[in-house]
TrEMBL record:
The lineage of its organism: Bacteria, Pseudomonadati, Pseudomonadota, Alphaproteobacteria, Hyphomicrobiales. The keyword Lipid biosynthesis does not apply. It comes from Manganibacter manganicus. It is found in: Cell membrane. GO terms for biological process: peptide transport. Pfam families: SbmA_BacA. The chain crosses the membrane at residues 12-30, 50-78, 90-112, 142-163, 209-231, 243-267, 335-356. Coiled coil: none annotated. It is a multi-pass membrane protein. Keywords: Membrane, Transmembrane, Transmembrane helix, Transport. GO terms for molecular function: ATP binding; peptide transmembrane transporter activity. This is Microcin B17 transporter. GO terms for cellular component: plasma membrane.
């Protein structure tokens, strides 16, 4: 799954994580200031943010682009010399491009949040006193918003186009790797489906979860300092009172609660999803045999196999029902949580409409990032079931024993064994 696309996966991912951490720490503890040596200094402390798309070609951003390119180039060069891999242009440079695109996407949200403050303050001023704001001022603010929106749309389209090719390259690498070892793998139950379908599902799901995780981390890096800064406007939290960095603690606490709640509620789902693949495979295999052998796929056998499919699906529906109750309930509460904790501050009249909008947006971004597992749990469940199926290939190639379920299929278990 990984060795076909990434050079020495365990070492590669460990080194990538350490290199990213080192790059982030160096940036925050001196690297950002190095740009001043070439005329690209960081933004002055307390300076108002640049509104709209022009922020992306200010000196701090240009220096970051150079810094990112140098870090990626050094990492790529190391792996090219240490362990050259036929797919490393896509696995290293392609992953770096997706990482960079994700960063730009997060910064689009930051640009939009920077726009919300002055726009809604202007909006409030216009509603408070007639003639205090001209129509031209409001139109100019909407024009800034339009440019942010169009830029975000173009970034999304280009990123998705590239990611589609990235996913297919990963699938191609897995396909070539498995087919090169087909003689050792073809005896595993559903080998053809695992190569033809599961490789695509695995690469697609891994990419989606990976990008979502990176997006969550980058969102936290971008919005946590902003949320900490906005906490100075909050007078007190319900039940808790006034505490430093109140919005940060509220976002983290609420997200941890939701994550634990959903993990406990959905703990049975991965096993049921894998069992679902198992009974479906047994049913499909019997039908395929029946195409060429009239002794196979007889009505009693097919009826029994399909009853196992039905029973597993009904069990899965039941467990998803109470999981969705908790998930939907938490999402409904999450939609109003940031407003509820701001009630004492709103009642005290200490914030403007623009600041309220900025707090609500920043809190939502931080909260949703901490809730990565909450949002991704159904996809993670699906990925685990795919991983278990493809892991049988890895076990065979590495001389490890198959799982108990795969041994039943491989050794020819009874129909009732597959239930």
């Amino acid at each position: 799954m990984f060795v076909s696309f990434f050079p020495q996966p365990k070492l590669f991912f460990s080194s990538a994580a350490l290199w990213c951490l080192a790059g982030i720490l160096f940036w925050f503890f001196g690297g950002e200031q190095l740009g001043a040596m070439i005329g690209l200094p960081p933004a002055p402390a307390g300076a108002p943010p640049v509104l709209g798309v022009p922020m992306f070609w200010t000196a701090p951003f240009i220096w970051f682009y150079i810094y990112f390119g140098v870090m990626v180039g050094a990492f790529y060069l190391f792996w090219r010399l240490y362990a050259n891999h036929p797919w490393q242009n896509w696995s290293i440079l392609g992953s770096a491009l997706i990482l960079f695109s994700t960063y730009l996407g997060v910064q689009m949200y930051v640009a939009l949040n920077n726009w919300r403050g002055p726009f809604f303050d202007l909006f409030q001023k216009a509603l408070t006193k007639a003639g205090a704001v001209s129509a031209g001022e409001l139109y100019s603010m909407f024009w800034i918003y339009a440019w942010i929106g169009m830029s975000a749309m173009m970034l999304f389209v280009v990123t998705r186009f590239f990611v589609s090719h990235y996913i297919f390259r990963w699938r191609t690498a897995m396909n070539d790797y498995y087919m090169a070892n087909w003689e050792r793998l073809r005896h595993i139950e559903g080998a053809s489906q695992r190569v033809q379908e599961d490789t695509m599902r695995f690469s697609t799901t891994m990419e989606g979860l990976g990008v979502a995780l990176i997006d969550s981390v980058m969102t936290l890096i971008a919005f946590l300092p902003l949320l900490a800064q906005l906490s100075t406007h909050v007078t007190a939290l319900p039940l808790v009172g006034q505490i430093p960095y109140s919005l940060v603690f509220a976002a983290v606490g609420w997200s941890v609660f939701g994550t634990v709640l959903l993990m406990v509620a959905g703990i049975k789902l991965p096993g049921l999803e894998f069992k679902n693949q198992r009974v479906e495979a047994a049913y499909r295999k019997e039908l395929v045999y029946g195409e060429d052998d009239e002794a196979k796929a007889r009505p009693p056998t097919v009826k029994e196999l399909f009853s196992h499919v039905r029973r597993n699906y009904f069990t899965l529906y039941f467990h998803y029902a109470y999981f969705n109750i908790f998930r939907s309930g938490f999402q409904q509460a999450d939609a109003i949580f940031s407003s509820v904790i701001l009630i004492p501050t709103i009642a005290a009249g200490t914030i403007t409409m623009g600041i309220w909008q900025q707090i609500a947006t920043a809190f939502s971004q931080v909260s949703s990032s901490f809730q990565y597992l909450v949002n991704a749990w159904p996809t993670i469940v699906e990925l685990l079931s795919i991983y278990k199926r493809l892991h049988a290939f890895e076990a065979t190639l590495e001389g490890e024993p198959l799982s108990s379920i795969d041994r039943e299929f491989h050794e020819g278990g009874r129909v009732e064994d597959f239930a």
